[in-house]
Amino acid sequence: MSTPDSTFFLTMLPTLTSSTPEVPAVEANATSCQQWELVHHMLFHLGNLSLLLGLLIPTTLGLHMILLRLLLMTGCSLFIAWATLYRCNLDVMVWNVVFLVVNFMHLFFLLYKRRPIKIDRELRTVYKRMFEPLHVQEALFQRLTGQFCTIQTLKKGQAYAAEDKTSVDERLSILLKGKMKVSYRGHFLHNIYTNSFIDSPEFRSTEMHRGEKFQVTIVAEENCKFLCWSRERLTYFLESDTFLNEVFKYLIGKDITNKLYTLNDPTLSDKAVKKMDRQPSLCSQLSMMQMRNSMASTSDTDDVLNQILRGGSAGSSLPVTAPSDTALPWKC
Q1: Quick check: pTM over 0.70?
Q2: CB of 220 closer than 8 Å to CB of 155
Q3: Closest CA to 258 of 196, 204, 203, 216
């Protein structure tokens, strides 16, 4: 005999059973792709081909990034045309429009960086002769000469620096036009020609010792024009650019070496300079090392100069000691 509770449970069982959702039977070997769609339009394949070609461009190619951006823009444009004309997919079209705009902005930036830089005609020769062989870009050279650099002139006979009077802390200059004569206590040392530093030895020797004075006199032998940097601002700028700082170290070191060779043999120059008439050099009577050691051996430089002018043997017989910055003229 059934109780009321068991009768209620048996009555509700069919209802609960009928409300349970049926799970469709899935065959064990069935896949999610029952039928592949037809091949897409040719624009879709051309767009993918453009992306593939862009990824295959070797990075060693000079225009690698520009060509990559052009091919990416081409691929995005083809995808936009395919999604708009043949698939009518708004989301595909919008995403490719975004990619197209981003690549166009990047391409514009790359082309802007490669724009031709107009260097002043007076500075073109200096750039070609001194900075371009060291792979200094035109934009970097323009930054170097455009902010804190001036072009100044000297008439024939005017002095660029006077020994024991002019401070070496103010400037660094490159001769653009003309010729200058360097002398020490009235004795001719050598000439300075175009496309060379005027005061490179002072710049190098006084990097750690400020307040020094020129030990030589530099006078314009012709109407001269020179490129002049403020030393303080130039030093600050070079500290912020490691590459350009190394370039200046090389150029100044090379210029000092050329001046030392000129001291030792004033006939060392290019063919055009060899044809010029020169004054007899103080250093033509003995080797550069003999003069350096002789002048470094005593504080009375006038006596040494007199001995050198009388003959190289007197200078070479003096004892060799450590060189002194105050006793030596900067060219030695």
Answers
A1: no
A2: yes
A3: 196
